[in-house]
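Lecture notes, unit on binding sites. The following record was shown on slide 14. It pairs a sequence with heme C.
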Amino acid sequence: MKKNWLIGGLAGVLMLAGVAFVQGGGAEGEDVAAESGQPIAFPHNQHAGSEEGQNRMDCQFCHFSAERSVDAGIPPVSMCVGCHQVVQGTTPEQQAEIAKIQEYADHNEPIPWNRIYKISDHAHFPHMRHVTVGLECQTCHGEVQTYGVLNERDPAWGGDNMGWCIDCHRNPPEGLTATDGSPIEEASIDCAVCHY
Ligand code: HEC
Ligand code: HEC
Ligand code: HEC
Ligand code: HEC
Ligand code: HEC
């Protein structure tokens, strides 16, 4: 029985491997391509960092569905264009990377980002359930606001090992609260909440 859904899950991963990830934060993704570079050298620190000269943008300004949907979501090209029509970069390297944005926009194509964080299709992870109780993005993805181009998983993330999920569900950090304000002392470890 167990074996069957695992095999089914794997077949699903293979079938979906050809489907592009970026379309408005769709539910399914490309297979992990952590080792190859990204199509545009998008630096998280320049946008979300709080050092001098960085833009202190909120994570959810771009990952706008994290609080209300299963997927955190990747912003569409149009959002980048909104700033980069004006902000063209200072150095030649920056200008070359920023110019690529307009090319995707002109061709009406989504930027083919390589997906980094992905669990197998036989398990399900709902962002909103975690973000609304007060967990920080950094707890699971590390200090993203200090990173340049993302091309590998942060050691904080343990999603390819179910023990990571279970350990926190048994004993979550203190200070998490449900929407009605009541404290959260544990989360479900029933197989069916994650595998269905
Ligand atoms: C200006 C928009 C923008 C802001 C602000 C932003 N991100 Fe991103 N983020 C992106 C884009 C575009 C990608 C896809 C390219 C990449 O992987 O770097 C991405 C990718 C990611 C990924 C990897 C997704 C995957 O699996 O491929 C994580 C995790 C992430 N961001 C977390 C964060 C966190 C945490 C913050 C706040 C500290 C943040 N982001 C702020 C635009 C943004
Ligand atoms: C709120 C405005 C804003 C948005 C939205 C935004 N950027 Fe930027 N971006 C900036 C600013 C400001 C800089 C710094 C430019 C400089 O220093 O001259 C920058 C720099 C960059 C650079 C060059 C960074 C370097 O140091 O090499 C790239 C590439 C870039 N952005 C890509 C993107 C992409 C892709 C998106 C959409 C996912 C995006 N930006 C969304 C404001 C924005
Ligand atoms: C409890 C751990 C946890 C927290 C908190 C968390 N994430 Fe994630 N994130 C994950 C896991 C696990 C995946 C892989 C999910 C999958 O494959 O379905 C993921 C995938 C992603 C992705 C890529 C796919 C997508 O959902 O669009 C992005 C972007 C992302 N996270 C951004 C964020 C941001 C931004 C925050 C904070 C607002 C955040 N995450 C909070 C664990 C977490
Ligand atoms: C750092 C702590 C933490 C990690 C890591 C974590 N979770 Fe959670 N998760 C929680 C908390 C806390 C809740 C309870 C939210 C609530 O009660 O509303 C929760 C709720 C859930 C729910 C909803 C459960 C229900 O009763 O409907 C699912 C599904 C889930 N998590 C899946 C996962 C998966 C899959 C992973 C690993 C890839 C994971 N979580 C990793 C803390 C975590
Ligand atoms: C909180 C979420 C969660 C719960 C509860 C959960 N699992 Fe998992 N499980 C996962 C994740 C995440 C993976 C790893 C997915 C990956 O490899 O990307 C996984 C992997 C597995 C695997 C594949 C082998 C392995 O260890 O990687 C089996 C079998 C499995 N789970 C069975 C179960 C059974 C049986 C239960 C109930 C006793 C259960 N799971 C409860 C999230 C969960």
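Take-home: Confidence is low (pLDDT under 50) at residues 1-35.
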